[in-house]
Amino acid sequence: MAEEGAVIGCHTVDEWNHHFGQAKESGKLVVVDFTASWCGPCRIIAPIFAELAKKFTNAIFLKVDVDELKTVSEEWKVTAMPTFIFLKDGEVVDKLVGAHKDELPKKVELLLNKQ
């Protein structure tokens, strides 16, 4: 697993399976950012997502490019970017679609406080 406070980029299905499997076993909140390089709102929210990873080291932050990992984004039914999926023990506990820079940190904090 990557160091605490870092966003873990998944660039292959094998990387996704590895990091997702480790994250699932950790019992921690997992926040997955489904993004695309051509997506303007994704580029705007990316530094905020990175700051959240630094601030909330008791959660795991994964990033998936929908063009690189089309099968993964289809499996999670991602149809718009950015989409943030919040997981606990491999199960979806919440979802946020769009670059909502105020709502994203609130959701992370709320879900961490529910643990």
Structural features:
115 residues; Thioredoxin_H-type-like; Glutaredoxin; five-stranded mixed sheet; single chain; 4 helices
Topology, element by element:
Layout (H helix, E strand, L loop, with lengths): L6 E4 L2 H14 L2 E7 L4 H16 L3 E7 L4 H6 L7 E6 L2 E7 L5 H11 L2
Parallel strand pairs: 1-3, 2-3
Antiparallel strand pairs: 2-4, 4-5
Description of the structure:
There is one protein chain. The chain is α/β, with parallel strands linked by helices and about 120 residues long. Helices cover about 40% and strands about 25% of the residues. The protein has a single domain (about 5-115), classed as Glutaredoxin (3-Layer(aba) Sandwich), CATH 3.40.30. The protein has helices at about 15-25, 40-55, 70-75, 105-115, and strands spanning about 5-10, 30-35, 60-65, 85-90, 90-95. Strand 4 (about 85-90) and strand 5 form a beta hairpin.
What Rg do the Cα atoms give? 13 Å
Report the end-to-end length measured between terminal Cα atoms.
21 Å
Number of strands: 5
- Tell me the CATH topology: Glutaredoxin
Question: What is the CATH domain class?
Answer: Alpha Beta
Strand order of the largest sheet: 1-3-2-4-5
CATH superfamily: Glutaredoxin
Domain module tally: 1
The backbone outline, from C-alpha atoms, is: globular
What is the N-to-C succession of helices and strands? EHEHEHEEH
From the helix content, strand content and strand pairing, which structural class follows?
alpha/beta
User: Strand share of the residues?
Assistant: 25-35%
- State the helicity in percent bands: 40-55%
Unreliable parts: none
Give the mean pLDDT.
93
Question: From the 3D coordinates, which CATH architecture would you assign?
Answer: 3-Layer(aba) Sandwich
Question: Describe the biggest sheet?
Answer: 5 strands, mixed
Family: Belongs to the thioredoxin family. Plant H-type subfamily.
InterPro entries: Thioredoxin-like_sf, Thioredoxin_CS, Thioredoxin_domain, Thioredoxin_H-type-like
GO molecular function, one term: oxidoreductase activity, acting on a sulfur group of donors, disulfide as acceptor
Keywords: Disulfide bond, Electron transport, Redox-active center, Transport
